[in-house]
Amino acid sequence: MSRFFATGTDSDSETSSEEEQVVRAPAPVYTFSDDEEETKRVVRSMKEKRYEELEGIIHSIRNHRKIKDFSSALASFEELQRAYTRASSVIQKEENGIAPRFFIRALVELEDWVTGAWNDRDSRKAMSKGNSKALTSLRQKLRKYAKEFDSEIVKFRENPDLPDDDDERKDTSSSDESDEEEKVKEKPKVRRSPEPPRRPPPQDDESSDSMDWGSSSSESSSSSDDETRGATTLRERFLKRTTERDDDEERDRRRARRERRERAGKVSKKDQADDGGEWETVRKGAATSDKPKMFAKDSDIDAALVVKKLGEISAARGRKRTDRRAQLELLHELRTVAQQHNLGDALQLKLRAATVAALFDYNPKVSDAMKPEYWSRLVENVDHMVTILLAHEDMVLSEMITEENEQLVTPPFQVRGCLLTALERLDDEFTKLLKECDPHSNEYVERLKDEVRVSALIDRVCQVVERDGAPQEICRAYLRKIDHLYYKFDPRAVKKDLPPGEETSIKKMERLCKYIYANDESDRLRTRAILSHIYHHALHDNWFQARDLLLMSHLQENVQHSDPSTQILYNRTMANLGLCAFRRGNVKEAHGCLAELMMTGKPKELLAQGLLPQRQHERSKEQEKIEKQRQMPFHMHINLELLECVYLVSAMLIEIPYMAAHEFDARRRMISKTFYQNLRASERQALVGPPESMREHAVAAARAMRRGDWRACLNFIVNEKMNAKVWDLMVGADNVRAMLGRLIREESLRTYLFTYAHVYASLSLRSLADMFELPRQRVHSLVSKMIINEELLASLDDPSECAILHRSEPTRMQALALQLADKVGNLVDSNERIFEKQGSFFQRGGAPRGEGRQRDRPREGWGGRRQRNRRRDDERGHED
Fold it and tell me: How confident is the model at residue 496, as a pLDDT?
């Protein structure tokens, strides 16, 4: 009301108001015209609010990570969890429940940081107690929380170079802000009208009041003129003036933002319309740049220019956020350009070598397997390299050639690179591919079919290396060939009527290994060649050649100093050598080869065919990862059940006759500890049912042999179940079963003689032959051998074909008495040794327990009494 009283309608009031300054309340500023300064209210969506909250917490976590503050990082992580829970409804609505990429990136970065700090034991020891405790708690909570985002994390790790979702949001918001700034900057340039601003028509409820006030038009025009002039002066004073330089800078900033969004494949239609550009389809995936032009249109393309461009492309290798796929495409295009201009095969070879190196770099993690499609491209490029080298005898590819000495235009061509290293890495990637697949799936079979390609490629590389390489390089190439050959059975090697000139795998292995024996400069290649050669001989039942080669090499003495892969190959060779000895009927040799491997209880780990579950802190994650990388592919595995069965049967055929011969011997030793423990565990059972597993069959057969029942023993070892599980897996299964039947009869006969010889006065060899279904000559040979070795006290009567027993063996009572006497003797010896150790105590004045001391005689020790007694005996002898 004071405003209306102060500004009356009469002229007196106007003059007085000009002369006297009346204090007025500040009137609200209304802006009804476009030339007035607009105060725009920013309305943010719920998504922006929640995402900004998440980004702020993530920023604080990154700051904590820089200073290694795990306590603060733990608190921020818990706050991040709560903030994500609050934003879950927005994420569910806007992103269909998929976590935003910047959030997943923060989780991955935090997980990598925590894992690295946890694995660095030295830094953990140097931490404070609170920081270390916070690290442990943060690690546990992060692992538990990250399980909810496993799929998103895996997808992120496949393409970590993709831009985050918030980049688009920031670019959009920044472009909007820039547009607003541009509008604001353009507003001062608008020419103002001298007319006063028009007020909007009054509302219905205010119309009556405005009518009653009755203010004149002259007053309103003058007051509005003053207000407009004052507002314009104020705005011009504080508003930033726009210059041509500012316009140029703003235009450059907008263009940079548009280019950044175009690289991310998210350029808007409006921006493209402003630039006058064309639409381009951008593939989904890694962040890609525009396809650069390789050369200018009017440039003269030659080998030097292509090599220079190749250097520019290769310079980006290993840099952060380098698009590896784009590099491969650039190399492919460069190779196409070189081929179109006929720049020569030497340049093509160099470009192929660069492509192979880029394919190896495509997989960022060395431990992970390469994708099958890129591995196929790798094989194709290496194959093209070999084709070029075989076609040009005057072309050399070597690492010893420097880039300055390369000859790519004129012969003799010299190119820098190493074909053998590429082949070795390709072979290793093939092994990784096989280990990544499920061995019981069709995918493994499909991947295994590629071994034909790898073997053929190795043969072709061997031709190139034999022509141009040094002897050591030839040895490396031959060893790769041996690695794909030594474990394969060649049925032609068993046949005797081979066509002339045909080379079997045995002859090929002998040729390759002999070259390595003669020319290898490092012991590792020679050692692996010897072990592979022994393995291949044993696989084809060449027992004597394999045994002699092992004994001449003396590998048993030095193999523990070799690298883990060579030790694994040694274990595989000894296992296969034991199987070969068993197939040939050499039970003792088979047991000796398998004993060291099976007695540890870890044949699966020693043969690199899997990892056994370990207790906590017994194997770290790094050790487990390294051991998994050393595992053998599934098609190279040795059947562990077959190994264990052969070992137990061999131990049974050796241990049971020995136990029967030394039943009452107190100093009897165990030949096979594992077999002995299984047998004792079976004997301790109150109720023994029919055998089910392979181990139970072997133990039941041993108990039957101990009774002399060879038929039951043979039935436990050779039956349908055991044939399907074990014996049918061997080459020549019928011969193996026949050999087992013969050995079981012979050892059962020896066990029977050891056990029941004291019952008989004489034994008929013919009756023994009929009882054990053996030829009489064989029974005669066995009994004679036992008599010669003094295992059986008897003599042979040839006319009657009987074995006359001399009954010199002690009876059961006598044997027990002798055993008791031995134990008592051992006890006496141990007591005397203990008594001699305590002699010093008696010399210091001690007396045996139970002996009294004479008070009138000075104390004398055990030594003093012995000297006194000796003097007394001497005096008596002198008197006599």
Answer: 72
